[in-house]
Amino acid sequence: LMNAVVAQDVEPARITQHCDSVSLCFSKGLGAPAGAVLAGHREFVAEAWRVRKLLGGGMRQAGVLAAAARLGLEHAEATLRRDHDNARHFAEGIQELNSPLCSVNLTTVETNIVMVSIRGGWASPAELCEHLRAVSEEELAETGQAVSVLLFPWSAHTVRAVWHRDVSARDTELAKNKLEFVARKCQE
Length: 188
Prior knowledge:
Elements (H helix, E strand, L loop, with lengths): L1 H7 L3 H5 L4 E5 L10 E5 L1 H13 L8 H12 L1 H22 L4 E2 L9 E6 L6 H9 L3 H7 L8 E4 L2 E5 L6 H19 L1
Antiparallel strand pairs: 1-2, 3-4, 4-6, 5-6
Helix pairs in contact: 1-5, 5-8
């Protein structure tokens, strides 16, 4: 929700206006260690509260977590905008590679998620993900850096990259360079 809010530059109420209920996780993107909030009709929230208690859910002394969630909300726009900018920079780097192995449709990069299309040359998205995760002696000798990039094999021809508050602009640059290295080695 908050990534969409920042990307579209609207209030959360605008996006959720036709929803019966909304759940917002404070740890995803906002950086809190845990926590979520549930909103909806009074009866719905009361029933959710009852079921949570019935199943043993609940926390004591949750003020520290609430403080982290509040801090995350207060800094959400700047944090998420940085994540979006880093994702965009990575996607633009893939386009600049002009590789026959992978591409990105830049018009689809609106938030912190980049879907990378995989073409001929890779056996599978899982193989690309493994090459990006692994650090070889050759990479270390050639680049002087040991970089491990974690992407997710999303479908038969796509991998997914997601940015969050702990991925810096420098990390993004290293990931872009690693993809370039792996693509080059695949073509040799």
